[in-house]
Specification:
It comes from Candidatus Berkiella cookevillensis. By secondary structure, the chain is of the alpha/beta class. It folds into two domains: about 15-125, no CATH class; about 135-295, no CATH class. The protein is about 35% helix and about 10% strand. It has ten helices and six strands. A four-stranded mixed beta sheet has the order 4-3-5-6, with helices on both faces. A two-stranded parallel sheet has the order 1-2. The protein is globular. It starts with about 25 loop residues before the first helix and ends in a 57-residue tail after the last strand.
Length: about 300
Amino acid sequence: MSQENLKTNAFWKPTFFRDFKGYEPLGALFENYFSAYPQFPSITDYNQLATEMYAQMALEKEYQVAFVLQDFSKSFEKTAFTYRQIMTRPNNWHDLFNNLSWIIWPKTKWQIIQRYFSEEGMRETANRNQTQSFLAQLDECGFIVISADPMIAQLSFQHQWSELFYHQKSRLQSMEAFVFGHGLMEKGLNPYIGMTGKAVFIGVTQSYFELPMQERLAFSDHMLSQFVLVAANCNNPRALQPFPFLGLPKWWENNEVLSFFQNTAYFRPMRNTHAESFVLNNFVDKSLWGQWQSICPDHW
């Protein structure tokens, strides 16, 4: 990582996605766009990028949004829900990552806004209710783990981190991870020990890994959006699990030695080592798997 403080919003680095493993999907999709921007993308740039990506994705109109300048007199959530407009501050990393996540996972982001806004009338206080807190955590800190090996989810739910990342790390060849939360994406500019995602787990067959990146991301968007659509899922505390992702290969320097995983302040143990894993597939009706039926296992 460059020593420059990339959180200084005036500083634009078009190759930022090369500095953190979690940015690989951004580089795969947007490298040509980033290299063409001499400074932070403008509102026009964001909208042009979205239009081109939506066309490539053949995205339904109902999930498409436009980006507009921030108006601090208006509610972000209400503006997004009512007008399908994502308010954006110029020269701002946090908003850049939020906008990119709207382009990559449009269905899930829309379901989050819909679900969040529908809960407004159900609040008993000025604070977020349980569902809104869940959605905010997913939106800011969400992390997607996609795996063809059920033991990856099981070891994660049991907090068997040294087993997962060191002793049985060959299993990780059957998984892929995406940083979903835009707040978590921003932290990747200056990563630090302690970074933890709120993970959802999706089971797949091995054929998933043969798909191109854009289709794999579309699959994660479809499954996660269907999950958020069900209100009960957003009240299940087991649905979001802490995942210390810097243990993944190449996500942090020198994480190939056992001593790295003995830092229990980061790789925290769990008292209940018999916890059952929560795999998203089991909470999305099979009839809603759509075109992805062939890469979803029948049993998990």
